[in-house]
């Protein structure tokens, strides 16, 4: 997809267009304006965004803003980023800055505007970035920016977020879209006090939005994303054109038909490769076996390189190109995998998706190009398999936090069709740990730890195993393992790449001060490595829904051998808590010199009413208290 710049092929289109059509900048004044400065790092005094659709294939954006920077945390508002590429042209960029008294500090000169590549080591394309910087060191100060960009990529109309960050106030911001007569604008409004005003100006239809006096956004713990809470307008065309390819996105089906035009005829493989694939899968007993063999072949043969030039931002390279070169971006590698599966008789479907760890799902009620990545969907008799074709290490069939639990647009022969990717619950995302500790008379000890991670809980360790050198792995473990002061004597990882992948981690730790000594007493914390530490503050009135994005199940079993001569003085009772958010239990038993501790914590993902917030805080505080419990031993006197 266009403007991709990460190994996950997560395209920056939405980000770029937020920059191209920003809705933020800031300022302060007298009287009523002082209220907007409270709690703000910057204030947008005025902002005007005007988008003019010239034709199916061309549009112009003019943007002008005045922003007051109140402190160093608002300095990023004094920098302007204007991306462009082969399909867009920057007409001009202007800027000036003023001190607190209104005296001009400087006028932006053309030779002060940086023009840099907007690519990384895995990315080859025509994406560039113009950067203007008017940062100043004495607060408050004011910056003005103005620019014009003309685009020949009309898949994307601007999205308007006039309050696009926390601790940002807006005195006044406007958004105007001018459409040629007969062309329809589609839009989706959220959190606006004033709806759109539509009028006719000459031969154009004018759509106008305005917001004013927006105080800084206050987000709440475990709350919705800021995008849900602020005023916004999403816009999109019905009909559009990119480099001669005309299409429609009036419906998801229509958008899929356009993508099909770009893909058609690009799935042809050399006969030599087809024969090789047939030989590779000749002994496969099931269709899933064939998929795994082809996917392994893909991972061993190719690497991810994003090549984005013009229509190439949406059109995949031919399968024969990838077969010869051994590289491609998400579109090319997905198309190549689809062609290889087709060669061995397995049907699969090219799918657009919005990738990113736990990002918000697309707006399913607003057909538009909201995607930044491509996956392959393989329908099965029992279940669907999803293939991440850009990764050389991912397990076949696993979505995870990057592409799971959201909608994808299948590009079928009949057009686009929305489907949901895999949703992973608490029992899919497990951390099952067993610990054996032998304590000495000084409270130190040796611990053998084995932990099984599955689903989302194995993702970080999958990366550590496959992308870090041994010395880097050891360093990472020292940073990540939460335990009393320790040294790592030994460690190793092993992995299973099933549809629900898992990583097993084995550690041998030398522990110092695993137990605390005080006179004849020894204080032992049986929860050695998995203490919950955070609970948000209670609020008199919760305003927003409670949102939990992750679900998991942790089970810790800890056996501790205490030195001879000690007897139990205090033993915590069995603990159990339940709420709509999850469940927790912990128990401790002592048999002779052996302590057995079992802790289970299961948390659900979901969205809950604001009135449930007090219950979440209470639940988490109870967990924190339970996790801090200690067993107290006293030494027998001879």
Written description of the protein model:
With 638 residues, the protein is of the alpha+beta class. It folds into 3 domains: 13-235, Immunoglobulin-like, CATH 2.60.40; 252-420, C8orf32 fold (Roll), CATH 3.10.620; 430-635, Jelly Rolls (Sandwich), CATH 2.60.120.1130. The chain is built from 12 helices and 39 strands. Strands 5-4-9-2-1-11-14-13 form an 8-stranded mixed beta sheet. Strands 28-29-27-26-33-37-36-35 form an 8-stranded mixed beta sheet, with helices on one face. Helix 7 crosses helix 8 (330-343). Mean pLDDT is 92; it is low at 2-32.
CATH architect. name of the largest domain: Sandwich
- CATH topology description of the largest domain: Immunoglobulin-like
How many strands, which pairing sense, and closed or not: the largest β-sheet? 8 strands, mixed
How are the strands ordered across the major sheet? 5-4-9-2-1-11-14-13
The count of DSSP E runs of length 2 or more, i.e. the number of strands, is 39
- Using the CA coordinates, give the radius of gyration: 29 Å
Distance between the termini: 77 Å
The secondary structure category is alpha+beta
Categorize the overall geometry.
globular
Number of helices: 12
Number of domain units? 3
Strand content: 35-45%
Labels describing this entry:
12 helices, alpha+beta, single chain, eight-stranded mixed β-sheet, C8orf32 fold, 638 residues
Offer a quick outline of the entry.
It comes from Pontibacter akesuensis. By secondary structure, the protein is α+β, with helices and mostly antiparallel strands.
